[in-house]
Amino acid sequence: MKEKTMKKLSQAIVLAGAMTAGLTAVQTAQAEISASVDIASMYLWRGQDLGLDKGTAVVSGALDYSHESGLYAGVWTSSGDSSLGNETDFYAGFAGAVGDFGYDLGYVTYIYSETAADEFDDAAEFYLGLSYSMVGITFYVPSDSDADGLYTVLGVDIPDTSFSVALGNYSDIDDEYTHLDVSYAYNDSVGFTVSKIVDEANEDSYDKSMRYVVSYSLPIEM
Predict the structure, then answer these.
(1) Which residue from 187, 215, 156, 191 is spatially nearest to 23, judged by alpha carbons?
(2) Interval 158-178: pLDDT, tens
(3) Which domains occur in the chain, in start order?
(4) 149 by DSSP, 3-state: which?
(5) Cβ-based neighbours of 131, under 8 Å, separated by 6 or more
(6) What's the rounded Cα separation, in Å, for the pair 95 and 128?
(7) 10: helix, coil or strand?
(8) 114-137 per-position pLDDT tens digit
(9) pTM for this one?
């Protein structure tokens, strides 16, 4: 679900039209299988454009299974970013709600094409999402005990509008940056996101230019 430009960690986590995922816990009414195909104008993940050629479009697809108990699992695959190649993510978790309080606990692994094997090791994270009413926060922690890095995203759905705002922060021993995303859902299929890195520990380590993403999601009848 790399919350990368389209990471869709089940309905609970990974795509902000540019990836502001993880704001609301999944609520399932019955066991079901769902699928979708998504197109975005940029591979935006945690405030960064992952395309080698900036603004490279990405096509992705997801297949999800959810059970009324709150258990869910799925696979998300995309044309990938220009430097790491095609990507496939597998994820599973448990989500639910008690009144206005929602929760989501799960695990996701990111697998890249063989062409990228020498450049980047496959990665995995545990995540915990908590939400109350229109506010949600999700924490992502590497599953490898030797790996550094914590990513936290705080999101708010603005009442009576189709707008949402997300503030994400990545930090490890040697690096830290914060990004701000503002998203607008035109309808159930079309979304727009504006994203900008607003702060960083190491000056000039990241491109702070404004990023604009348009995304389109097409549900597939199962």
Answers:
(1) 156
(2) 999 999 999 999 999 889 999
(3) 10-220 (2.40.160.40)
(4) coil
(5) 23, 24, 25, 101, 102, 103, 137
(6) 10
(7) helix
(8) 555 454 556 899 999 999 999 999
(9) 0.82
